Predict the structure of NAD(P)-dependent oxidoreductase.
Amino acid sequence: TPFNRLLLTGAAGGLGKVLRETLAPYAKILRLSDIAPMAPAASPHEEVVPCDLSDKNAVHALLEGVDAICHFGGVSVERPFEEILGANICGVFHVYEAARRHGIKRIVFASSNHVIGFYEQSETLDANARRRPDGYYGLSKSYGEDLASFYFDRYGIETVSIRIGSSFPEPQNRRMMSTWLSYRDLTHLLERALFTPDVGHTVVYGMSANRDVWWDNHLAAHLGFEPQDSSEIFRSKVEAQPAPEPGDPVAIYQGGAFVAAGPFD
Ligand code: NAI
Ligand code: 15L
């Protein structure tokens, strides 16, 4: 049965605009939130609630009456620490604190492959691999995963942390042939993450059924995530691009160019 009211943060973003449509069947009311402008509510099934995640009181008000949360809001690329701190680190803390106070029991957290970005592409990781964040952004997602773990152990709030690879309409480069997650597979994974019972804190890698993958989801098998798409249909288009120079981080590290972002001063 669908949730009565499902909150989607980051609703103005690239994924949020897609999920605004595809999550609709999973809730009677979809509450959409972002700091950036959003299209007005299209039907009685939508609520549009602007909110800055770095504002604790505003986040508390945002979660009033909510049954489950897909937390996709925040800075989504490498940026100076101070920007990441407010939106991602304080932001995810505010979401969990408000969930605790409102009695909300299920969160899906948009984590990222950048929590393990400093592994080389030759390595295969499962959810127990030691984290190797590739920047302040990856560190903020690592903190979010730890917060999810703590709020389950301490308060029984369940989370699925999805280490999303690269979720775009198509893989944009050779690296994304491995990391690509189609919108259809993302939506299926969110459905599994919202409705599978007893997930505790589960970490799952968000990738489609691509030919060459770096991640092994056996520790999240209970979710029943079965991706349908593959980057393979885009191979000739992607490989028509010039190959990266040997030594370019984009061809060495799982996190690609993020490992070489910054410093910012
Ligand atoms: P995006 O940057 O397009 O969307 C993020 C949204 O968060 C934006 O609309 C932005 O306005 C909002 N936001 C930023 N700071 C905020 C604040 N202080 N308060 C409220 N809202 C704020 O990113 P995208 O691609 O849609 O990603 C969505 C989520 O998924 C992000 O958390 C990102 O880190 C994560 N993710 C996405 C991946 C992808 O391939 N698209 C890969 C891995 C993780
Ligand atoms: C991410 O975490 C970013 O949010 C997204 O914009 C992509 O860069 C993706 O990772 C990626 O690694 O391709």
Remarks:
- The pocket of D-galactaro-1,5-lactone (ligand 2) is lined by residues 76-77, 112-114, 166, 179, 256 (CB under 6 Å).
- Helices lie at 14-22, 56-62, 81-102, 136-155, 174-179, 183-195, 235-239, 249-252.
- The first strand starts at residue 3 and ends at 9.
- The chain has a mean pLDDT of 98.
